[in-house]
Write a structure and sequence with these properties.
Blueprint lengths: L1 H14 L10 E8 L2 E8 L5 E10 L9 E5 L3 E9 L7 E10 L19 H4 L3 E5 L4 H12 L4 E5 L4 H13 L10 E4 L2 E3 L5 H12 L1
Parallel strand pairs: 7-8
Antiparallel strand pairs: 1-2, 2-5, 3-4, 3-6, 7-9, 9-10
Length: 211
């Protein structure tokens, strides 16, 4: 698997597609302690990423001759490499960063007991009503997760059509929900799922419904 990832990332670099040194959520942070320079990958998003980091350095005792590939969990900081400056030598480095979003496969996710979730085919074939809003990153991530797991869904953008908002308000009243409307909101069969704030919560919600 690691060899395959390396081939994919190398291909991306050779094609000159995305050297994502200024990724929206993943950045490289430097920590200098004396002669030591540590590089960390910082992920500020609520989903995980696989990253490829290639460091070209001169004037250091140790440099990255080989690219580094690591998984960076959601909202985390992971050390990638430590460089040690040589005495009386000018030192500098540059890096190439490629970021790949980790796709979630619900069937492969496990709970704390290590039990695989299984989706009943008849349930999985039912259509999910997905209420979204404009400029909603988690809404887009929700659509990706549903599509990746071949779960049919119908999208209702409440910013683009007020009738969808009226329908949703009726659902809130029927289910005696007092909280404010915050997208995304899912209706699966007779169940209404609100207050989903992270992709981790989304995955858990879908797992619980389809287990």
């Amino acid at each position: 698997m690691r060899f395959t990832l390396l081939c994919v990332f190398t291909l991306l670099l050779s094609l000159g597609t995305i050297a994502q040194n200024k990724h929206e959520f993943v950045s490289i942070e430097e920590k200098v302690t004396g002669k030591r320079v540590e590089l960390f990958a910082v992920n500020s998003n609520n989903i995980a990423y696989d990253i490829f980091l290639k460091v070209d350095a001169t004037g250091y005792r140790r440099s990255s001759a080989r690219p580094i590939i690591k998984n960076i969990p959601a909202n985390s900081k992971v050390r990638m490499i430590t460089l040690v400056k040589l005495a009386n030598t000018e030192s500098n480095y540059k890096y190439t960063l490629v970021v790949n979003e980790v796709r979630f496969d619900l069937a492969m996710q496990k709970d704390d007991a290590g039990i695989n979730y299984k989706m009943d085919a008849s349930l999985k074939s039912k259509t999910v009503d997905l209420f979204t809003k404009d400029n909603c990153l988690l809404c887009n991530q929700t659509k990706d997760v549903l599509a990746n797991n071949k779960i049919n869904y119908k999208e209702f953008n409440i910013d683009q059509d007020s009738t969808y908002l009226v329908s949703l308000l009726k659902e809130f009243k029927a289910n005696n929900i007092k909280s404010k409307i915050q997208a995304p909101i899912l209706k699966i069969e007779d169940s209404l799922y609100t207050n989903i704030k992270t992709q981790k919560q989304l995955i858990k919600t879908l797992q619980e419904h389809y287990k």
